Amino acid sequence: IQAMVTAGIPVMAHVGLRPQNVLVEGGYRVQRDEDSLVGDAIAAEKAGAFAVLIECVPESIAAAVHDAVGVPTIGIGAGRATTGQVLVTHDLIGLTSGYTPKFVRTYASVGQTIRSAAESFRQAVEDGSFPGPDEMFD
Fold first, then answer.
1. DSSP annotation of 54
2. Which residue of 52, 77, 117, 137 is surrounded by the most CB atoms within 10 Å?
3. Is 55 a known active-site residue?
């Protein structure tokens, strides 16, 4: 973190569940090691992180992390004890199918609309109705 900050690259630290590591860590599991999470957040702040993202932890642990640092904290599946909240846009708008984390609230269901549009496009290409005369140049 420190090298990146020194190079002029802003860093938001990420503690708790890190989706890129779920296969190594045994799956999507709530992170409960408060001492480790607080220590990591403090170290990240000392190294120059401008904020800390806290993911998939109990609210009480998110509160402990939040209280331990002087930078903003952003929660995703971390309860209400953070400075702000975030969700993955694909989850928020209902674009994903299959597994959805417990902490996700879906505000729309655009996934089916997009799948339907793509299917209509495929059919139009296959039946030759796309492109039509109005969608081509003379």
1. E
2. 52
3. yes
3-class state of residue 118 by DSSP: helix
3-state helix, strand, coil in the chain (%, to 5): 45, 10, 45
| Confidence at residue 135, expressed as pLDDT on a 0 to 100 scale | 96
- pLDDT tens per residue, range 55-103: 999 999 999 999 999 999 999 999 999 999 999 999 999 998 778 888 9
β-sheet bridge partners, residue 35: none
Which residues, 6 or more positions from 20, have their beta carbon under 8 angstroms from its beta carbon?
A: none
Residues 25, 34, 45, 55: which is the catalytic one?
55
CA 65/CA 56 separation, integer angstroms: 13
Domain boundaries, the chain: 1-86, 87-130
- For the segment 38-60, what is each residue's pLDDT rounded down to a tens digit? 999 999 999 999 999 999 999 99
**Cβ-Cβ contacts under 8 Å for 99 (sequence gap 6 or more):** 28
Distance CA 122, CA 74 (A): 41
Q: CA–CA separation, 41 vs 51, rounded Å?
A: 9
